[in-house]
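Could you join me in thinking about how sequence relates to backbone shape in a protein? Label the sequence line and the structure token line clearly, so we can match residues to local backbone shapes. Once you have written the record down, we can walk along the chain together.
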Amino acid sequence: MEDVASWRAGWREYVWGGFAGAFGETLMHPVDTLKTRIQSGGQFIVAHQGHNEVGQALRFIWSVDGVRGFYRGVVPSFIGSLVTGATYFGFIETTKDWLEYSKPSLTGPWAHFLAGAIGEGLGSVVYVPCEVIKQRMQLQGSCQSWSATMAKINKSSSSGLASYMYYTGVYQAGRSILLKEGFAGLYSGYFSTLARDVPFAGLQIMFYEGFREALEYSHEKKFLTEINITARKFSSLEELVMGGIAGGVSAFLTTPLDVIKTRLQVQGSTHRYKGWTDAAKTIWKEENIHGFFRGVVPRVVWFVPASAVTFMSFEWFRKQYHEKINDSVHECGAGLGVLTKGSVSSSPFLPRPLSSHESRQDQSSAGNA
């Protein structure tokens, strides 16, 4: 019965995580557009638009396409983030609890890293095709700017550019890529995406949980003389800050992997790079260390608020749900006169407590009672 209740609670967290992830990604999509154009390394039509720095890309997009140019590809981004956010947070919560209670020897930072990495990996099946479509639409910009740029290019001498048609939407883009490049086109850079997202997802949740545990420890140490130590409750501001820092640090550390992934996914049928290793060697040879950190500023600027909002939103959704359920159970128990200490946390029909720290404390209290 407890396994069924845990599974049901976990699916709620899949839904919360999906919407939280999609909200955070969509909010910062304009910054992601800048990052993608800068990291493309002169591929696609960006080679003829001079997007080498943040200022250049910002001025060009604003002058040619306006606000709409920054939101090109936002639909596939939302779809991919919705799925990945669901698997990420849902799998984190279910796996983390299983590791902590069934395999206590695996608890700690690596348990969080493993849960986040696997959750992100599961979502990649849907996320990668959405990422490919999103990035190509971001590089094309509006139909007007794309047509103007293509008019200046001799298509006969630019086979890579001539092979592309303008993508009017998600379905048309996906169908076009599938017909011309097959599934290999939709999943181009798949393993490089995993090489970037798996460590990023693992590091992000590891840092976030580490910050939470550090604050919980300081709280316990501060009130060590108290007879009853209540579990540390985090404010939305604290969760916002912890999520932002965790996302920013993780984004900075994995920027080289993001550059390689972007180059492989936007090259299309030109095949400038033969694979992940060849891309890494070529970038190092032609651009040195600077090439691996192209777009690091917009990437970090993008992930700090996106991660902050995502984690805060997820925790807020979960808090609201738990508070509503707990209030209902208390009212029902008070009316029947059967509610006892620890019954809320130990009931097999209720979701898990808000954190592993609170869960362990409630179980201990129930046992002593």
In short: Confidence is low (pLDDT under 50) at residues 1-9, 156-163, 338-369. The chain is about 75% helix and 0% strand. The chain has one domain: 8-149+165-224+233-326. The domain at 8-149+165-224+233-326 is CATH 1.50.40.10 (Mitochondrial carrier fold).
